[in-house]
Write a structure and sequence with these properties.
Blueprint lengths: L3 E4 L4 E5 L17 E4 L7 E3 L4 E3 L1 H5 L11 E4 L8 E4 L4 E2 L3 E6 L6 H10 L1 H7 L10 H6 L1 E4 L2 H41 L11 E2 L2 E2 L3 E4 L6 E2 L17 E4 L7 E3 L4 E3 L1 H5 L11 E4 L8 E4 L4 E2 L3 E4 L9 H9 L1 H7 L10 H6 L1 E4 L2 H41 L7
Parallel strand pairs: 3-8, 4-7, 15-20, 16-19
Antiparallel strand pairs: 1-10, 2-9, 3-5, 6-7, 6-9, 11-12, 13-22, 14-21, 15-17, 18-19, 18-21
C-alpha cells in the first residue's frame, strides 16, 4: 500500500484555537445556546453536545469562534493533553483546543482522528512546559501524517468507526438504563411514592418506621492504599484490579487501568475488596463520584469504601442517596486548593434509612437494570480491545484493505 507523508497543517482548510469568554460576566453564559467545548471533554470521542453553553455576546467578546461539524479537535494542555475528538455539531472551543478543519479533498477527517488517536503518546512527548504539559498549534500543524489514497483512508475509517458506533450505542443504552434507575430512586425516596405508600402513615415528614441515622451506624467503611510507585515489580504483571479515583464514574467498575501484585497488596495499605462494594472519591476532580465493584478489587487511599451488606449485595439505595446529596458532600469538604472528604466526615453524615423491605425491593429492581448495564459495559470493553488491535495494523498498512 502506497503512503504519502504530509504535514497535518497541509491537509487542513484551517487550523485554529478558541477562547474563553470572561467568566465574571454572567451575560456571556446565562441563557447561552452556543455549545462551548472545554478540553476536559476531548477524550477520544464524538462530540454531540457540550457541558457549557455561551451567548452570542460571549462569542462576540472573546476569541471563541465557530468550528464546523466533522472537525478534529486536539487538546493542547490540561488533563487530556494529546487526546482528540470529532465534532458532530458546529461548536466553539476554549483556547486549549487545537481545531483542525480537514480539507475533504486531501484527507478523510476520520482517518486523521484515528491517526492522532494512535499518536497520542508521541504528541505528549513533544509537549513542553514545567508543571503542566503543553502542545501548541504550530507543533500540531508541523506533525507528519502518512496518508494512503483517499478511498483507502475512507475504507479504514469506516472499519474503525463501525466499532466506535457500536460502543457509542452501548453508551446511550447504558445512559437510558441509569436514568431509569435514578428516576425510580426519585419516585420512591424523594416523592415517597414507593409500593404501598397509599396506606403508609407519615410522621414528621417521613414514612412511619423510617429513620435518620449516621452512616457509621448503618454501613462498614474502609479505604485503600497505593503501593510504592518506585517499586515497578508491584505493578508489572499484576493480576489484582486496582481502582484509582479517576476511574470512579457513577457506574459499575468492571476493569481497571492498572493492576497490582499480591506482594504490592502485602506491603501497602491496599486491601482486597469484595464484589458489590461501593466506592466514593474523597478528593480530586472526581470528589463525590461513585462506583460499584463488579468483582473483587482493591483501590487507592482516595476512595471511601462502603462494604456490601450481610447478603453480599450492593446497597443501591446508598449509592443513589449519596449521589443525590453530592453537592452537600462537596460543600462540607475541606481544604484550600483542593476540596477533601474523609472517612471521619462521611461516617458522621446523617441519611434517611427506609424500612428494610422497601430497601430490599428497590435493590431487586435496580440490580436487574445494573445487570444489563454490566453486560453492555463488558461488550464495549471487548469491542474497544478489538478496535485497538486493528487500529495500528490498519493504519500502518500491515493489514491491507480492498476498496
Amino acid at each position: 500500500m502506497e503512503y504519502v507523508v504530509r504535514h497535518i497543517g497541509d491537509i487542513c482548510k484551517k487550523v485554529c484555537s478558541g477562547g474563553t469568554p470572561t467568566s465574571s460576566n454572567s451575560s456571556y453564559y446565562e441563557g447561552g445556546t452556543i455549545p462551548w467545548l472545554n478540553t476536559n471533554e476531548v477524550n477520544f470521542c464524538n462530540i454531540y453536545d457540550t457541558n457549557k453553553k455561551i451567548t452570542k455576546e460571549g462569542l462576540k467578546n472573546s476569541a471563541a469562534k465557530f468550528i464546523p461539524e466533522n472537525s478534529v479537535i486536539v487538546a493542547m494542555y490540561g488533563v487530556t493533553a494529546g487526546k482528540s475528538a470529532i465534532t458532530k455539531i458546529p461548536l466553539t472551543t476554549n483556547q486549549a483546543c487545537c481545531n483542525l478543519i480537514i480539507d475533504e479533498k486531501e484527507a478523510d477527517y476520520r482517518f486523521v482522528y484515528y491517526f492522532l488517536q494512535q499518536q497520542c503518546d508521541n504528541l505528549n512527548k513533544l509537549a513542553n512546559g514545567g508543571a503542566q504539559q503543553n502542545l501548541n498549534a504550530l507543533l500540531i500543524k508541523r506533525y507528519k501524517i502518512s496518508l494512503p489514497t483517499l478511498p483507502v483512508q475512507r475504507k479504514i475509517a469506516s472499519i474503525l468507526s463501525a466499532y466506535d458506533s457500536l460502543i457509542e450505542n452501548n453508551a446511550k443504552r447504558i445512559h437510558l438504563l441509569e436514568q431509569m434507575a435514578e428516576n425510580l430512586y426519585k419516585e420512591w425516596f424523594i416523592r415517597f411514592r414507593f409500593p404501598g405508600y397509599e396506606n403508609t402513615e407519615f410522621v414528621d415528614g417521613l414514612p412511619k418506621g423510617w429513620k435518620v441515622r449516621k452512616i457509621k451506624d448503618c454501613y462498614k467503611t474502609c479505604s485503600g492504599g497505593t503501593p510504592n510507585r518506585e517499586k515497578s515489580e508491584y505493578y508489572a504483571n499484576g493480576t489484582i484490579y486496582w481502582v484509582k479515583t479517576g476511574e470512579i464514574q457513577d457506574s459499575i467498575i468492571i476493569d481497571t487501568e492498572e493492576k497490582i501484585t499480591s506482594d504490592a497488596l502485602k506491603h501497602s495499605s491496599a486491601r482486597l475488596l469484595p464484589p458489590n462494594s461501593i466506592l466514593m472519591a474523597m478528593y480530586g476532580v472526581n470528589i463525590g463520584k461513585l462506583g460499584i465493584l463488579a468483582r473483587q478489587m482493591s483501590c487507592n487511599q482516595a476512595a471511601c469504601v462502603f462494604l456490601p451488606n450481610k447478603d453480599k449485595q450492593a446497597s443501591y439505595y446508598l449509592f443513589f442517596h449519596l449521589k443525590s446529596i453530592r453537592e452537600y458532600l462537596i460543600n462540607i469538604g475541606f481544604g484550600a486548593a483542593q476540596q477533601n472528604l474523609s472517612q471521619a466526615i462521611i461516617n458522621k453524615i446523617r441519611i434517611i434509612v427506609p424500612i428494610e423491605n422497601i430497601e430490599l425491593k428497590f435493590g431487586q429492581r435496580i440490580s436487574a437494570l445494573y445487570r444489563q448495564i454490566e453486560s453492555l459495559q463488558r461488550q464495549s470493553v471487548l469491542l474497544t480491545r478489538q478496535r485497538d488491535l486493528l487500529l495500528p495494523r490498519l493504519m500502518s498498512g500491515k493489514l491491507e484493505v480492498k476498496v
